[in-house]
Amino acid sequence: MEVVWTRQAIRMINEFVDYIAQDDYLAAEQWALELMSQTDKLADHPRIGRVVPEYNEETLRELIVGNYRLPYRIKENGVYIEAVWHVRQLPPDKE
C-alpha cells in the first residue's frame, strides 16, 4: 500500500520544521526524517495506529511520534497522512 502525504500535512510539517530550525537546524531535519521513517511502516501495516479518539472512525487512525500526532486515513488505494499535530493542539472540529 502506498503512503501519501497530503498537501496540508506537508504544509504543517514544513511549519514545524521552520519553527524547530530557528533553534537547531539539525534537530529539525532529524525530526522530519523520523516522522517519515515512522510513517513508512504504514505501507505494510496500515492499521498499526490507533483510531483517532476525537473522531472514532475506523479508517481515520493516527501514529504518535514523540510529541506529535499524525492522523491518517486508510483508503483502498493507499494510506493518506492528513495532518501533523502537536499533542497539545486540539484537532479541528469534525466537518
TrEMBL record:
The keyword Metal-binding does not apply. It comes from the Bacteria. InterPro entries: RelE/ParE_toxin, RelE/ParE_toxin_dom_sf, TA_system_RelE-like_toxin. It comes from Fodinibius roseus. Keywords: Toxin-antitoxin system. Coiled coil: none annotated. Gene3D superfamilies: RelE-like. Pfam families: ParE_toxin. PANTHER family: TOXIN PARE1-RELATED, TYPE II TOXIN-ANTITOXIN SYSTEM RELE_PARE FAMILY TOXIN. This is Plasmid stabilization system protein ParE. Belongs to the RelE toxin family.
